[in-house]
Amino acid sequence: MAGKRAFVRGGSLLVLAAAMVAAAPGAAQAQQPAARIAVPPIAYTTRTLPNGLKVYAIRDTGTANVHVQMFYDVGSQDDPAGRSGFAHLFEHILSRVTRNIAPGQLSRIVEEEAGGTRNASTSPDTTRYYETVPANQLEAMLWAHAERMGRSVLDQSVFDAERSIVKEEMRQRVLSQPYGRLQRYYLFQNTFVDHPYQRSGIGTVADLDAASLEDARAFHENFYRPDNATLVVSGNFDPAQLDRWIDEHLGSIPRPSRPILRHQLAGRPHSAARTITAYGPNVPLPAVVHSWQRPKADHPDSAALEVLSRILSSGQSSRLYRTLVYDRQLAQSAGAINYGLEDSGLFAINAIVASGKDPAEVEAAIDAEVARVRNERVSDAELREAITEYVSDELFDRETPTGRAETLAQGVINAGDPRWSDAMLAAVQRVTAADVQRVARQYLSADRRVALRYLDEGQRQGEAQPDPSQQPTNVALGLNLPAAVGTPNQLAPEGERVAPPAPGPQRAIAAPAFAERRLANGMRVVVAKSTELPLAGAYLVFGGGSSADPAERPGVAAMMTNLADSGTSRLTATQLAAEIERLGAQIGTSAGADSSTAFVAAPAANIEAAGRLLSEVVRSPAFAQEELDRERRRSLDQLRVALRQPGTVNAFALRRVLFGDAPYGALSPTPASLEALTRDDLVRYHANWWRPDNATMVIIGSLDAEQGFALAERLFGDWAAPAQPLPELPANRAGTALAPRVVVVDMPAADQAAVSVALRGVTRADSDYYPLVLANSALGGSSTARLFQEVRVNRALSYGAYSSLETMRDEGLLVAQAQTRNDAVPEVAQVMLGEIRRLAAEPIAPDQLERRRTLLTGSFGRQVETTFGLGGFLTNLAVQGLPMSEYGRYLSSLAAVTPEQIARSVAAELDPAQASVVVAGRASQFIGQLRAQYPNVEVIPADQFDFGGASLRSAEN
């Protein structure tokens, strides 16, 4: 629950994460004016091929990477009649097989041969396919996009497999989430009228089951063609060579003669206000949403709506948070979403009702805030804060080739104009208080409002209604596409397939210039210049962390960091929030297993002023009793929500299964420990651990070494270290190794089960670390790894199956995990254990090892080219007690690992016989078969589950 951010980028349809405390304008001392933030425009070139393909190129010779994105002007609004979710389903299908790319090969080309990453997404308006790879792999990516556009294989096996996977994605992302149906179905169904935007982008089970291979072929012919596509290339490339490759691979794809058939429904606004009460299973706290239709994304009022949204819901000083969450404590969370689309859009205000509060009070409070912004002009301070936040976000978003490509692409999607984002940036800075009031009056009118209340199914009076995730949709909202006329492609015989283009010369990953020294008070300072963009940030890392919590009192470190930025000795929580947001800055705090962290990020022009606020947060937090009481109530409500989600319950149980009652088993606060926390606990923890001689400061961004050291001296040089020595940490925070367990937390309302198989591992400093990094990569480190291939690709049992290697100072752990249908739990657990045994029994082949090394090298390059990626890497070195020089040894250490070393390390550290299995799901659907495999399985009913101790059972049971 630690880890708050000063403002949230963009909106979320339902805000469930911890948000910062609200603020009122003003501070206890005179404010210095925030510096103007300069955001460089995006420089690009463009051309259109004879076949209609539009191309945008953004060159950056300072990176070793390139981002390639192809987006098609087709989204869920274009789903065929009675086939909701089809554009999303087709997004999956198109990445499966082509004439020259065998099943699974596309991921291998991108990840294992190029060392890149790939993904795709579907929105109401567009479908995107994108990769970020080392720049020498650019031609291969263009070739792969040509394969998908012109030579995709659409056969029954591909169609059936991807439809099953989409259903698992629906279960994981929608049905197993307490508010998933509200977000994906009820909100859109009720906001839009007679428009395809009403339908869920992920579809319904009935519509997915009704879809056919013939639908897929007709869909592909109509939409997946060069004159309906846009290519964006951003990164390090030679422009002339790029043009030649595009002409060769994509220019030869013919433009079809048939015109593109599109939806003609324009939709309409509501003619009167509407009030709806909807119900869903597994809803721990009521939710309230008020929504309105807004104009399309490129409407002139979009800038004012963006500012309005931020004033209402962005950061601590937002009106909704201040009123609903902070002052009146009616809601556990509150926010707004401003979602402009190609044809229309929605503006929604949402809240999760606090426990014990009446949804009607929350609805009335929302209505009052909307009336206030309609009837009274916002203050100059609020206006400036919202505009500064937006401009600061734009600066950070444009740091990487990927970010610049996304920004340009969004402009093309929203307005058909690559300069739209730059124009929007300028327009936002021109918005006035009168503009904000005008759009509030025009679009947030009471007679157009849809008021939606979402309650648990157990509160329903009367007959149950059909589950929207299962029902057919209105066929009138869909397209009727003509049948495909082309000859279907087939996978060519292996000897006849065209291989992807060979890579060019590898470009070296640019190493940042970083330096290190200590202040007189003992604080270690590391400065790493990572960018020429005018942005900067700093992390302060303190030893200790949640494993230093007092015995029987987990959550002290987490609550201390949660409250550290909720007021200082000089500034109240509201004043501090206003100061942070005025600077376009972010300040956040968090607690990990072995450390706690405070960070600041801001445009470089404001970094000193923001750093002074960080200094106050770190050195003189107030820990006001009323703030503790408020945060305790919010944290308890967050736990109520979290304990309805199988993945979270699984994670809580897993720590106790592996580490029992040792400190590493007790990293998360429980309801009982939250109730028991006192202000004295927080003050004592802060005094013990937040001190300069226990701190490492990592400064990143555009500052050079001398500028960074001077900044650190000005901010923290006068902070004196206490005379008393640091407290001693527990001798072994991991405790003794425990016998393996098989544990099931029975959640009868869960639509999906979370499955984990875990082993204790190694520390970051262990000699086996690098061999196990590569072993984990082969096991479950990506979509080409063994778990993903076996669980998702071969069996279609999950949306994704992965493994992770987590390291802590005294121990580590390897975890394989997936979410799956409840009835598939025994099979998935068996696959996971089988792959761990295989990892121990079968040495990784040299060619496979090289592919995993390539993947990790590329991932490292993408991480450290971003300011916060580099900062995170260096900060982790400090947390793990390693020298900063380990940065320079990372790639060479990976390169030195042999298959024999991996085999020895796996044999020594990962004994499959010691693996534990943890499941959270509906036990009635799998327990018999699971018990046949594991007779010693422990079944814990959800209402008896308590992760406050190793038994995982509440004391009264």
List the helices and strands and how they pair.
Elements: E1 45-48, E2 54-59, E3 65-72, H1 86-94, H2 105-113, E4 117-122, E5 127-134, H3 138-150, H4 156-175, H5 180-191, H6 205-210, H7 213-223, E6 229-235, H8 239-249, E7 274-280, E8 287-293, H9 302-313, H10 319-327, E9 331-340, E10 345-353, H11 359-375, H12 380-397, H13 401-415, H14 420-430, H15 433-443, E11 450-456, E12 513-518, E13 524-529, E14 535-543, H16 556-564, H17 573-582, E15 586-591, E16 595-603, H18 607-619, H19 625-642, H20 646-659, H21 671-676, H22 679-689, E17 695-701, H23 705-716, E18 742-746, E19 753-760, H24 769-780, H25 786-794, E20 798-807, E21 812-820, H26 825-841, H27 846-864, H28 867-879, H29 886-896, H30 899-909, E22 916-921, H31 927-933, E23 938-941
Parallel strand pairs: 2-6, 7-11, 13-17, 18-22, 18-23
Antiparallel strand pairs: 1-2, 3-5, 3-6, 4-5, 8-10, 8-11, 9-10, 12-13, 14-16, 14-17, 15-16, 19-21, 19-22, 20-21
